[in-house]
Write the structure tokens for this entry.
Amino acid sequence: MLPLRHARRWQAASLCLLFLVLIGALMPAVWFWDDKVRGLAWIQSIDKWMHAVTFFVLTIWFAGQYRSKSYWRIALGLMAFGLVIEVCQRMVVYRTADWFDVGANTAGIAAGLLVAIAGVGGWCQHFEARFTSDPT
């Protein structure tokens, strides 16, 4: 982890974020229940985009807290988290597990890593330097 003044708070926020993503992934997908909406073909691909964007954001979030040499761990951890989500979705009757979701997660992680490597990584340090007061 990067030397952050508020490392425990960042970690707590990370756990909350992961929990919210898990809850969101297990909520019923109400927009597919209505037959009128089911007829719109484009809305069915929104699920994959939501997976990709969610894992892109998660990757950027964690890349802000860890050194670039740990990015491979972030990728593996988020891929494992994505698999846990799919297993949990398989266990509830109103959701389905889908390998294309895993692919969308992986695409989001890869895009997030590219953006992090391009210079966004370590953003938490910049945030703390700009918005938190020095205790001395």
Summary: The longest helix spans residues 99-120.
